[in-house]
Amino acid sequence: MTREVVQALNVQVDGTYVDATFGRGGHTRAILSCLGPAGRVLAIDRDPEAHRCAKQMSEAESRLTFVQASFSELFEMVNSHGLVHRVTGLVLDLGVSSPQLDSHERGFSFNGDGPLDMRMNPDMGQSAAEWLNTVTEERLRNCLRELGEERYSRRIARAVVAARASRPLSRTLELADIVAHVVPSREPGKHPATRTFQAIRMQVNQELGELKSVLPQALSVLEPGGRLVVISFHSLEHRAVKQFLRQSASGDRYPPDLPVTHDQIRPAVKILSKPLRPGQQEIETNPRARSAVLRAAEKTGHADS
Ligand SMILES: C[S@@+](CC[C@H](N)C(=O)[O-])C[C@H]1O[C@@H](n2cnc3c(N)ncnc32)[C@H](O)[C@@H]1O
Questions:
Q1: Is the separation of the CB atoms in 19 and 28 below 8 Å?
Q2: 283 and 260 in one domain?
Q3: How far is CA 91 from CA 25, 85, 229, in A?
Q4: Does residue 155 carry a pLDDT above 70?
Q5: 70 touches ligand 1 (CB under 6 Å)
Q6: Both 243 and 189 in a single domain?
Q7: Based on the domain organization, do 94 and 211 belong to the same domain?
Q8: What CATH number is attached to the domain comprising 265?
Q9: If you count Cβ atoms within 10 Å of the first and of the last residue's Cβ in the chain, which end, N or C, has fewer?
């Protein structure tokens, strides 16, 4: 949805943009192509492979600065570059990148065998294997149900705990097989372990916590009139973004019985258009885009007062 991102950001030639999910730099490249010599992009990603890619790109592109960090540290990163309240637009394209999914060594996918890792930054936190080999059955079940919306969470959690009793889990295909044995393959074209892998990935990378932490920070680093664009992929992400924007657009809260005039309500953002979904053509060339939803909002002058 690169074209839609650039449009929603309404990129200004001399603007300052933050791409908080650099990946392989598709959005950064598109933004840079609209900028003049005074424009700049601060890009962030926690993945060391994204860092390598950005390093190469920034050798030939002085308008690009990259920081390897979690986007929950956004305010600090932006502040250390002297850009608080000076960001013209910020994009968050959530979830995993195609290179992360396609590299079996990263352990995100059941399409090939690899170590059961799934960390976006493999130098931080617990790997999926470490988590799965120590988590209680109940917590695993809740994780599968909540983050994976997995109907068979009970069966899967029981099977994982039984399997690890004889030998710790360590490989992606091992986990995929355990799941496939207890889950009927009910959705055509979808591996029975799809929801399990998604839930564990979201757990290992604390994806919802990261998102809830970055949204208010994103708003506070923007300049008045600056734009926030978020692409989410999962119903819990859609909900978190929608609720945050709705609340920010509804303005200051007053007791219901207090007489308040319209100009006292002071919304922090204006929501721009309805949520956008990718077109059929994009879904055909990139089936992973099918659940994407783009939301955009503009910061008002009230937000920092
Ligand atoms: C869907 S991809 C972005 C693809 C990118 N727009 C492009 O054009 O290549 C999401 C990226 O965000 C990164 N990411 C996800 N959560 C993050 C977080 N909490 N902090 C920093 N980076 C994160 C992932 O490592 C991944 O590279």
A1: yes
A2: yes
A3: 12, 15, 5
A4: yes
A5: yes
A6: no
A7: yes
A8: 3.40.50.150
A9: C
The number of angstroms, rounded, from the C-alpha of 212 to the middle of its chain's C-alpha atoms is 10
State whether the beta carbon of 120 lies less than 6 angstroms from ligand 1. Answer: yes
| Mutation choice for ligand 1 from 4, 45, 64, 215, CB with most ligand atoms inside 8 A | 45
Tell me: the pLDDT tens digits for 247-271? 999 876 666 676 666 666 678 899 9
Give the number of the atom of ligand 1 that is nearest the alpha carbon of residue 91: 6
Last residue of a domain, one of 204, 221, 246: 204
Claim to verify: residue 213 and residue 85 sit in the same structural domain: yes
Could you identify the atom of ligand 1 that is nearest to the CA of residue 97?
Answer: 2
Global confidence as pTM: 0.94
45 lines ligand 1 (CB under 6 A): yes
Strands 222-232 and 40-45: unpaired
Q: Rounded to whole angstroms, what are the CA distances from 302 to 16, 48, 212, 242, 271? A: 21, 38, 21, 20, 14
Name which residue sits closest to atom 8 of ligand 1, judged by CA.
Answer: 26
pLDDT digits 0-9 by tens, 109-119: 999 999 999 99
Of ligand 1's listed atoms, the one at least distance from the Cα of 21 is 12
Using alpha carbons only, how large is the chain's radius of gyration in Å?
Answer: 21
Are residues 219 and 138 located together in one domain of the fold? no
